[in-house]
């Protein structure tokens, strides 16, 4: 693999069509809208907030972009209670403690010939803040992404799961691509990372955060694009089966279900079909494998008596 | 393009898409980056910069299509003549004649555009202004010169002059039509959202008793928007860490293995209760005028607060949670009012019904919200039950559609219930309601 450089990324991101093709080459079939967002994110140096139903390839977009640009992907999974010590940096507390324990005697030795509290303190002051230096700094994803020499793709996954405090804290990182570590100073990125934030909309994101981001909503794809995705992701699947699969899934999306199957489920289902050596849809196979597509028992039950008809319709296409 | 983009952003703001100054700057940068040549790319790009939610994106798409219904001006085409336009109206008149006679459609469109900017057509507010703006735009474009020319030609009276005058006359008519259509579009873009908003603001502050049934749909939209805003504000935060406070007990326990040397630190955390609400709504004859809106509130509460049980009463009390849950708003209102509404009131009986059937649901985590006027037809108000509720619940909130001054007058038992409420307040506009619900949800996040 060639060494990634800022210039290489620049070349790869120089046109919207180029991005669509490039993402396609790593197996991500995107729309023009997605490519436009990536293009803008790079040229305006802004993060992208990606929203959409679960399983439409939000996270995958970041991974594929990283793969396409040959940049490292640094991922930060958000959850309730995530704070800066887990996202940004942490002092290696255990190591600090261990070292003080070990060095206790050393310290005693050093302070032996001085007398008086004041003099000892003065001498200790002479030793800088050894315990708060880079050696004891544990960089977490955000700091790591800023420190990458050639830039990186930073994925902040499911940012809606994090607390509001954390969201506020992200603002500095996202607008200036820098963070402040009180004991060391401000760390600024040489090459700003390409940032993707994903959200499933479990809560509305704050306005301040949204203002700083480009907004990209990925919805369920049309059947043509979904067929392309299945073909790209599941090698060795026949065209006919792909068509039938996708048609079936699209019919399901029109039904009143608790959770609609998304692209990842379609791909999984296609894999299952290939494993079962099925070359076309029939009612029996569908019934046996429906649990790959639908994740709620009630959904499966509700659909049970329609399977035959849906399969017939899908098989006709 | 600068002026056009500015106008577009203005239109977006008018259509309720909040565009900050920062985002506007981003939009200009975006145009620099992607250019104007490909309209689809421009739409996608501006969309991701300016619209930050799916709903806003939809509004944005509509607005974009409406706004750019005509072709985009090429770079720098407009800006050049904006400044001189006013004094150059005369000169423009000459151009205008040239353009209409030469059939220069693009030229006319561009001239109309910059004339519209000049007279501020984007400030249009109400539809009656359409005529005046159309006239002003045409004046700016030099219509008077055109008219003088027609008059002059007519005076000459020669057949050729007559023919030319006829042609100009025709051109003038079609120009008028174009200007009207142009202003109509401007009105659709800028005026309609503005008057819509005005109406919304008025409704939010209007007294419920004065509202008419036809406003119900609009009202529901307003209340729902409010509900959504509140839900977003108080969305799921179940636990908040008290940063920087060690939980000594848990930490000692966790570090027993290290001989009590605190290698692992554990911080204090605080749990936040889920709001649990019991809403009791009076739908009797005395509140007939506002019953529908009280129920509307109840319905919206239902949409915001996950754990809520709703009751409605006149003389008896019934639970209506299921109706609110399963039906559309209009349907739910009709069903509930049919079932229990518009009879004579008996607060004491209703409280007794509640106590018998559902009393055990109220505990110290529950907030009880009572909506009603407290007019009980001189029956026994059963303040003893009210006191029990007060003692058992976390809070008892009474929302009364009547102004405070008439509480206690006539058959109103409000003053006797008052000591047993943690909060009793007048609530007869959407603004009031928002304040109360906000308050209601807040006590859970700070408790």
Describe the overall structure.
The complex is a heterodimer of chains A (about 325) and B (about 450). With about 325 residues, chain A is of the alpha/beta class. Chain A folds into three domains: about 5-85 and about 140-215, 3-Layer(aba) Sandwich (Rossmann fold); about 90-135, no CATH class; about 225-315. Helix content of chain A is about 50%, strand content about 10%. Chain A has 16 helices and nine strands. Chain A has a five-stranded parallel β-sheet with strand order 2-5-8-1-9, with helices on both faces. Chain A has a two-stranded antiparallel sheet with strand order 3-4. In chain A, strands 6-7 form a two-stranded antiparallel sheet. In chain A, a hairpin with a 3-residue loop joins strand 6 (about 180) and strand 7 (about 185-190). In chain A, helix 2 crosses helix 3 (about 30-45), helix 11 packs across helix 12 and helix 13 packs across helix 14 (about 285-295). Chain A is elongated. Chain A starts with 5 loop residues before the first helix and ends with a helix. Chain B has a six-stranded mixed β-sheet. In chain B, strands 1-2 form a two-stranded antiparallel sheet. In chain B, helix 5 (about 90-100) packs across helix 8, helix 7 (about 130-140) crosses helix 9 (about 160-205) and helix 8 (about 145-155) runs antiparallel to helix 9 (about 160-205). In chain B, helix 16 links the parallel strand 6 (about 365-370) and strand 7. Chain B folds into three domains: about 1-195, no CATH class; about 240-270, no CATH class; about 275-445, Rossmann fold, CATH 3.40.50.410. Chain B has about 450 residues and is an alpha/beta fold. Chain B starts with a helix and ends with a helix. Chain B contains 18 helices and eight strands. At the A-B interface, helix 3, strand 1, helix 6, helix 10 and strand 9 of A face helix 2, helix 3 and strand 1 of B.
């Amino acid at each position: 693999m060639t060494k990634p450089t800022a210039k290489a990324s620049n070349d790869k991101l120089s046109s919207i069509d180029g991005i669509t093709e490039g993402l396609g080459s790593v197996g991500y079939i995107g729309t023009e809208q997605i490519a436009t967002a990536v293009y803008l994110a790079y040229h305006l140096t802004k993060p992208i907030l990606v929203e959409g139903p679960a399983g439409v390839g939000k996270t995958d977009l970041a991974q594929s972009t990283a793969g396409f640009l040959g940049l490292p992907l640094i991922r930060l999974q958000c959850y309730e209670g995530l704070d800066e010590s887990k996202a940004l940096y942490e002092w290696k507390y255990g190591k600090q403690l261990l070292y003080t324990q070990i060095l206790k005697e050393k310290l005693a030795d050093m302070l032996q010939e001085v007398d008086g509290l004041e003099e000892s303190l003065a001498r200790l002051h002479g030793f800088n803040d050894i315990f708060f230096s880079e050696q004891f700094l544990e960089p977490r994803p955000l700091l790591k992404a800023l420190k990458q020499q050639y830039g990186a793709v930073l994925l902040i996954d499911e940012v809606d799961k994090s607390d509001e405090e954390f969201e506020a804290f992200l603002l500095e990182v996202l607008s200036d691509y820098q963070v402040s570590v009180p004991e060391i100073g401000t760390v600024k990125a040489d090459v700003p990372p390409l940032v993707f934030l994903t959200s499933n909309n479990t809560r509305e994101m704050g306005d301040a955060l949204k203002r700083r981001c480009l907004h990209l909503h990925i919805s369920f794809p049309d059947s043509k694009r979904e067929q392309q995705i299945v073909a790209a992701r599941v090698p060795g699947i026949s065209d006919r089966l792909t068509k039938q699969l996708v048609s079936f899934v699209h019919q399901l999306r029109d039904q009143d279900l608790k959770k609609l199957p998304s692209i990842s489920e379609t791909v999984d289902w296609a894999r299952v079909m290939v494993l079962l050596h099925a070359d076309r849809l029939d009612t029996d196979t569908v019934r046996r494998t429906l649990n790959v597509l639908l994740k709620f028992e009630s959904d499966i039950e509700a659909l049970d008596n329609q399977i035959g008809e849906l399969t017939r319709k899908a098989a006709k296409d | 393009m600068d002026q056009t983009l500015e106008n577009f952003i203005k239109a977006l703001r008018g259509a309720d898409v909040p565009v900050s100054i920062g985002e506007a700057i981003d939009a200009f940068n975006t145009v620099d980056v992607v250019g104007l040549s490909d309209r689809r790319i421009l739409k996608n790009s501006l969309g991701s910069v300016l619209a930050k939610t799916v709903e806003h994106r939809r509004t944005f798409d509509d607005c974009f299509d409406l706004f750019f219904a005509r072709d985009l001006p090429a770079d720098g085409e407009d800006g050049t003549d904006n400044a001189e336009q006013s004094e150059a109206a005369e000169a423009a008149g000459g151009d205008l004649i040239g353009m209409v006679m030469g059939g220069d459609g693009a030229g006319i469109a561009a001239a109309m555009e910059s004339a519209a900017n000049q007279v501020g057509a984007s400030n249009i507010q109400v539809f009656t202004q359409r005529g005046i703006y159309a006239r002003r735009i045409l004046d700016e474009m030099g219509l008077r010169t055109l008219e003088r020319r027609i008059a002059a030609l007519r005076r000459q009276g020669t057949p050729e002059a007559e023919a030319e005058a006829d042609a100009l006359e025709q051109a003038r008519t079609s120009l008028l039509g174009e200007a009207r259509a142009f202003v109509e579009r401007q009105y659709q873009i800028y005026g309609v959202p503005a008057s819509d908003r005005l109406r919304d603001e008025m409704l939010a502050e209007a007294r419920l008793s004065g509202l008419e049934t036809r406003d119900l749909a609009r009202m529901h939209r307003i209340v729902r928007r409010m509900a959504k805003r509140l839900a977003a504000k108080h969305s799921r935060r179940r636990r908040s860490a008290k940063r920087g406070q060690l939980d000594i007990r848990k930490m000692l326990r966790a570090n027993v293995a290290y001989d009590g040397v605190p290698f692992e630190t554990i911080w204090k955390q605080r749990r936040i209760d889920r709001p649990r609400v019991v809403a009791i709504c009076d739908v009797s004859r005395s509140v007939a005028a506002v019953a529908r809106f009280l129920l509307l509130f109840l319905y919206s509460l239902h949409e915001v607060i996950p754990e809520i049980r709703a009751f409605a009463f006149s003389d008896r009390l019934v639970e209506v949670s299921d109706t609110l849950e399963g039906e559309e708003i209009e349907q739910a209102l009709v069903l509930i009012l049919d079932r229990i509404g518009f009879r004579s009131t008996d607060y004491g009986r209703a409280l007794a019904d509640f106590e018998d059937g559902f009393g055990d649901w109220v505990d110290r985590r529950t907030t009880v919200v009572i909506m009603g006027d407290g007019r009980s037809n001189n029956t026994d108000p059963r303040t003893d039950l009210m006191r029990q509720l007060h003692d058992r619940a976390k809070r008892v909130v009474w929302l009364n559609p009547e102004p405070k001054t008439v509480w206690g007058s006539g058959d109103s038992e409000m003053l006797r219930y008052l000591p047993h409420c943690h909060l009793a307040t007048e609530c007869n506009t959407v603004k009031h309601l928002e304040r109360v619900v906000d308050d209601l949800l807040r006590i859970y996040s700070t408790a």
